[in-house]
Amino acid sequence: MLDNILEQVQQGKLTVEEAKTKLASYENLGFAKIDYHRTKRTGFPEVIYGEGKTADQIISIMKAIQQNNNNVLATRVSEDKAEVIVEQFPEAQYDSRSRILYWKLQNDAALQREGYIAVICAGTSDLNVAEEAAITAEVFGSNVHRIYDVGVAGLHRLLDHLEEIQGATVSVVVAGMEGALGSVVGGLVSHPVIAVPTSVGYGANFQGLSALLSMLNSCSSGLSVVNIDNGFGAAYNAVMIDRLANQKSRE
Amino acid sequence: MLDNILEQVQQGKLTVEEAKTKLASYENLGFAKIDYHRTKRTGFPEVIYGEGKTADQIISIMKAIQQNNNNVLATRVSEDKAEVIVEQFPEAQYDSRSRILYWKLQNDAALQREGYIAVICAGTSDLNVAEEAAITAEVFGSNVHRIYDVGVAGLHRLLDHLEEIQGATVSVVVAGMEGALGSVVGGLVSHPVIAVPTSVGYGANFQGLSALLSMLNSCSSGLSVVNIDNGFGAAYNAVMIDRLANQKSRE
Amino acid sequence: MLDNILEQVQQGKLTVEEAKTKLASYENLGFAKIDYHRTKRTGFPEVIYGEGKTADQIISIMKAIQQNNNNVLATRVSEDKAEVIVEQFPEAQYDSRSRILYWKLQNDAALQREGYIAVICAGTSDLNVAEEAAITAEVFGSNVHRIYDVGVAGLHRLLDHLEEIQGATVSVVVAGMEGALGSVVGGLVSHPVIAVPTSVGYGANFQGLSALLSMLNSCSSGLSVVNIDNGFGAAYNAVMIDRLANQKSRE
Amino acid sequence: MLDNILEQVQQGKLTVEEAKTKLASYENLGFAKIDYHRTKRTGFPEVIYGEGKTADQIISIMKAIQQNNNNVLATRVSEDKAEVIVEQFPEAQYDSRSRILYWKLQNDAALQREGYIAVICAGTSDLNVAEEAAITAEVFGSNVHRIYDVGVAGLHRLLDHLEEIQGATVSVVVAGMEGALGSVVGGLVSHPVIAVPTSVGYGANFQGLSALLSMLNSCSSGLSVVNIDNGFGAAYNAVMIDRLANQKSRE
Amino acid sequence: MLDNILEQVQQGKLTVEEAKTKLASYENLGFAKIDYHRTKRTGFPEVIYGEGKTADQIISIMKAIQQNNNNVLATRVSEDKAEVIVEQFPEAQYDSRSRILYWKLQNDAALQREGYIAVICAGTSDLNVAEEAAITAEVFGSNVHRIYDVGVAGLHRLLDHLEEIQGATVSVVVAGMEGALGSVVGGLVSHPVIAVPTSVGYGANFQGLSALLSMLNSCSSGLSVVNIDNGFGAAYNAVMIDRLANQKSRE
Amino acid sequence: MLDNILEQVQQGKLTVEEAKTKLASYENLGFAKIDYHRTKRTGFPEVIYGEGKTADQIISIMKAIQQNNNNVLATRVSEDKAEVIVEQFPEAQYDSRSRILYWKLQNDAALQREGYIAVICAGTSDLNVAEEAAITAEVFGSNVHRIYDVGVAGLHRLLDHLEEIQGATVSVVVAGMEGALGSVVGGLVSHPVIAVPTSVGYGANFQGLSALLSMLNSCSSGLSVVNIDNGFGAAYNAVMIDRLANQKSRE
Amino acid sequence: MLDNILEQVQQGKLTVEEAKTKLASYENLGFAKIDYHRTKRTGFPEVIYGEGKTADQIISIMKAIQQNNNNVLATRVSEDKAEVIVEQFPEAQYDSRSRILYWKLQNDAALQREGYIAVICAGTSDLNVAEEAAITAEVFGSNVHRIYDVGVAGLHRLLDHLEEIQGATVSVVVAGMEGALGSVVGGLVSHPVIAVPTSVGYGANFQGLSALLSMLNSCSSGLSVVNIDNGFGAAYNAVMIDRLANQKSRE
Amino acid sequence: MLDNILEQVQQGKLTVEEAKTKLASYENLGFAKIDYHRTKRTGFPEVIYGEGKTADQIISIMKAIQQNNNNVLATRVSEDKAEVIVEQFPEAQYDSRSRILYWKLQNDAALQREGYIAVICAGTSDLNVAEEAAITAEVFGSNVHRIYDVGVAGLHRLLDHLEEIQGATVSVVVAGMEGALGSVVGGLVSHPVIAVPTSVGYGANFQGLSALLSMLNSCSSGLSVVNIDNGFGAAYNAVMIDRLANQKSRE
């Protein structure tokens, strides 16, 4: 593309001023492809972090994205805000457990693929974070198998789902308290595991620190960790891997 | 006993001075029974914490105990010191892995009992601490089953020993890194589990903090925790429970 | 049992399909005995962690357990929720200090035994956690002696109860602030002590960290520790030990 | 396979005893495939964590693995130990920067694949950890592009390699101090990034805590984190992803 | 000045009492110039830290300052308090984003100077702290260029403003989460950078600790750090530097 | 006293039962003198920690103390509770800044003494803690000089009170933020300094940790530290020292 | 004194230059009395912190002090350095346990007084710190009673010394591990207690943090705390109090 | 410059290939000016961080820099390495206290300027860090006034240098332990203060954390902080400010 611009200048088809503008935009696009272009090409929706934004702010961002014919996903949207938003933006869907609000193009073939992500969680109190991961992955076009309430205190519950877990392309493991589920799943599968510590617990849990340290120090290889309660981040990673594994043929 | 003294005073069998001495000694014994008397009655050996003591200091304490015809166990004795001690005290036995040095009366029937303590450890690097626990328990007269190198990264290794673990009176679980083994064992047995976090690991392990927090936050009930690397303390607790369970008939 | 199934197959008494189902269930039971079977055999009630569950969720779990003719104990149930639950489930009892709600079969002989657990607490502010421990232990069938407000700042109050404490099978020591009571009791008794740090205090207490570290570093042997404010967990451990010590004859 | 065993019992081809043995081994294999079988099938070498093992222990493990005709990789092997090992095991190769010692079958076609992993590091002091990642990935059969000394203090050095980084299947980013490189790379690529905080730095670095927290809190999506200095773990994750992306056709 | 007083005593122009008073005041002024005198000479307004003060307290302090014909700036004033204050002190201006309330003399030539401070922030959630810095600097008489929402996840947004940032006399960089923006800006400019970590984030952010450690450990030279969320402090430093650079001719 | 009891038994003046009761009470008194007896002898009031107690509980404790003709001081009593208490106990006095509620016998000569305690605080936000110290000391009978708002940012304010501070028997220094005032005062006086870190501040203050560590690490000798915000504890220490220094003649 | 100088100037007895010098020295002395003058008047020796100083540096400081006819005390002097120093300064005395080196004028009547300081320590490993406190206090002229090895694990040992402890003017309590001894002593005496946490312990002791937090959070009033292992600082405080209590008549 | 290149292409003076090369180099220079160009223009020496580099590595970097006719400064060079380097590079100068090794062009007029930086330190143990700051600043061409051993425990020592400190353009304050010196100096001057916490201290100092937190929480405005022991970083900041203030006329 640079060749092209320079040749056009050489041939007098572009003035110096025009060339400068184009070069500037080229430079910007060089970086911008990680933003706007990637979204277009991959079908990833734009993401809004809802915490600390007003309902009005979220609505205006969503409308801008919609005009680009792009999917949109907003995380950490409280029920109060969601009500206001959905009223003005009725095609959006809201899930109160994951606090995710999204709008998705129908029949977006670009998003469909084989294989599935296993979203596994330890206890019922980890459900919100697990759902943030699961719904994020689904809106991003991955298939999700939910395997919930399989904490290591009752190992047989986990082992009952062993085959289903081992069949996934990538697992997202969500656990609070001592976070042992990450290591146990990591030892049972041969695919990448994204571990999400949650702030569930009390006392020496220190708002998720115990699960976080536990997962970082896992004796199982093949585990990597995202921030406490960051279901979205885990799903984002998992979807990236899922696409690399299951979508190559389409590109 | 107080009645007795007072009655003897009443009956003129004791002078006031004699009574005072006896009452004083009674008072002291009231507290002292936790030291000297308990040792006598229960057959528990005296314990010496070897760290920061010289070989000479350890020898003189051991000799004093031996004169009371009591067993003795010294923890955290380095190999250097042990050599010096064993030279002067050849009936003592030293175990270099656990760094325990002990002297035990032959045929001490008072120490024998049924049932066993399971000492379980996650990896080979936790062996030293596990052996500190195992040998302590044995010197204190408990039977010990060692189940080593059964970390959760290879869950089948643990499950292969399930029956043996479930058959114990009490388990001591020794694990570093993320310490998940504590929770997993806790979920598989119906007896008390004493968890020992070890300082094994690196980075965000923070000298055992990760395993410690993990074990304190266990989602399994029936787990209690001792200090990092405190194999002796775990064994001491386990032996107490073992005696309550398996030695009642003899008392 | 495995022999049995295989023999029945050999003898044509079981089809391959039937054998598979049985083996599967055997396998599940292998792990499940830690859940359902243990409850049945031991008379332990099912336990519900009330925090983060709605009144409706708790009611439906309780009803399911009741149908199995099992006792049930729910911890950390706020007064608001308890009111709603008791209205629909009038045979349940609620204790507002410990925030425990439970339903217990009458005359459950399986739960009765000799000996007692001493539940000891330092100050009036530790009462809630101490009561969580005491009531849990009682619902689980242990006898409990409450020895409250005996913090080390007034040592004579503790020593006045020395005999009662020393007579217990196991002690649960509940203390906040500097948690010194754990070490002091540990030095006075020859039975296991389960220490519960509480989050009572301010400033450099750091939500219970001071008491937690204090108890983990106790100079007294025979102390093990559970999570901050975890009265339930301490009682669960204590009851396990109490059963081992006092209930053997009945099994 | 279960069907098969049961049918053989039914048909008298297996005695009950023989069936029991087979069922046991089946059960073990069920879990063991994550160990031994996975290694076989995938061509992953066996891994030995060298820290805390003697040269002799490492040699005997390596010989056992070699007899299984398997590759082997040992991490954290000091130069002292390596010298001893290589003397007795001359076909092994040692890399002193990464402290990795490995033995690899020639022409192991199973390990070859397309695409590459970018191993990126911030400063020369992060080299050891970066090399642990790079060599691990190579021994595991991935192609590696090393992009070193591109810390954010001189952003142009990083941007000079932008195309090469963006062309990778997955990136491993190794950085100490403030660990900002993770976020910056994460914002520039559309593939998964595995971030490795290192303990490089001083003062408020607190042995890698600053880089660790920085990476966990990255404002860039698509980043997941492994333990401080855990180059091996990062490579292990990256190789798993690389295989999913680039090796499907061969399976 | 000391000479002067003593000479006047010598010459009988001052009594001993008068000299004592003068010496005392001299001494006090020696220190007091850092308070009152500095304010006068430099045109710096008096500053009130509003947190923990009532509206009434703030009003009475403001009135006292106004009588000295001095500018005044109050930070961390909540909207509630501001309403009350502005009602009684209508010439004051309130900015709700930065929570700053100030009163500024018109045409205060003493405050005007060349050059500008770049106030740069990473995300929209850092805006409040950035505005506290920006408005503080403006009230103190500096020119401010606001460069907002240029976090490193989208590096091109930052690079688009490169020239403007490089042209500043001093930069204030406001960032939460991983705080990488500090290092990146530090590497791109050759003037001093004051970094302000913010408490924006969640989980392992630990109320701003991650950004704080990140900035303290920056691999870029030329960065110094103020307390978490301390936009005012950063601006105060930046203004001092701005004056040294741009106002010398006037003194 | 023990002699006495035993002699009375010897002489038949006491039965064994009566002697036992007396000995028991003697024993209790032996420890109780630290509680009840000390209060009597020294004129120290009884102290109630109000946090976590209901108004009713406080009232009933106060009434019990009043019947013993003893002074009483309750700390951390919220304004709500205080209103209820004062209504029923109108002779009590409440100070809303220090949150102290107390009742003091008139003309309690036992409490008066020479000398004074300097209570020094850094900023207006430390006032509540400083007043808790000052009023505690006054109710305990010490004279108090309040030297407030003399933080080290304006050193001359502190130096203006140098003589008054140096004239005290003991100083209580109350400071939040960086707590430097403790070291500075410690370097200026030759009497004991009790330092009280406060939780005043934000960001890297971590609820008083910065001031606490600062005071513990003081380069000035003669400083000792109490818990964060513990104005009462500091005053209690100061009063003990004040009595030792100024009240000996009266005993 | 200021009057005096000014009057002399007025009367021509001092030139302006002479007055300036005197005023300067007055000013300096105003602060210096905390240094040099206090030492003279009170008989306190000069103190040298030996850590990080060479033997030569210590010798030259000691000689300077000796020329002022003043006592000197150097803390944290290693045995190596002490040997070198004592060779050149043979009148100095060295104590290897406390690592204190000192030189004391004979028959320094100014230092003698009534009453005593109780230096109490928990275990033999706390001895070094306890001796640093005890010897410091003795060199500063206080009488010291050593009550060692009375940790709370054997409460009767402490209670055996109750009367001796209660008879002291002030206590210094030295304890590592959980530091409970501070609270227990604090509850048994009615005089000030200076608590010294030591770094003795392992695991979750975190280099003395557990004892430090424990002592700061003591439930006993009348306790104040110095830095970890700071025996000198505790003694310094105790001596100050001892002087206030026992030396008034002489001043 | 961009204009220029494009015009040359337009005029046929540059081929497309040549233009591409130039544009690339322009782009690189765009960022590189922060590296190489800044050094040239400003006379700043190149800086080498010596820790973790071998003597040979340092020599070869120094030679490369020397060929560019540039000054060079290497920090954290141990005495061992320095000896080797100076032997091969005899024109280099080494300062063992600051561990700085540098080579400076004679008569480098570009580096000279008016005004001075005050480098202030609390105690003799902070000297190494203070010298790292002082020598760095001098090699970078600033004038430095050293004001050492003026810790707040003896405030008069600091106040004796008040005028000298207040006369500086910028101060670097180096202090360990409680770091109070930062706040005290900050309150006494009206120029920017760069505070350097040092790791000097013990116990609750936690390797410099106490001084770091103290300085970040300073109650004095105008203070900013660099990493623990980072004398170089503080000097780098101070020199930047010094140049802005004192060198403008020359540019």
UniProtKB/TrEMBL annotation, chains A, B, C, D, E, F, G, H:
Question: What Gene3D superfamilies does the entry give?
Answer: 3.40.50.1970
Q: Does the keyword Coiled coil feature in the UniProt annotation?
A: yes
Q: Which residues form a coiled coil?
A: 2-29
Residue ranges of every copy of the PurE domain listed in the record: 115-247
Q: Which residues cross the membrane?
A: none
Any Pfam family from its record, for instance, is AIRC
The record's section on InterPro entries has: P2CMN_synthase_LarB (IPR039476), PurE_dom (IPR000031)
Q: Which UniProt keywords apply?
A: Coiled coil
Q: Which NCBIfam families match?
A: LarB
Name recorded for this polypeptide: NCAIR mutase (PurE)-related protein
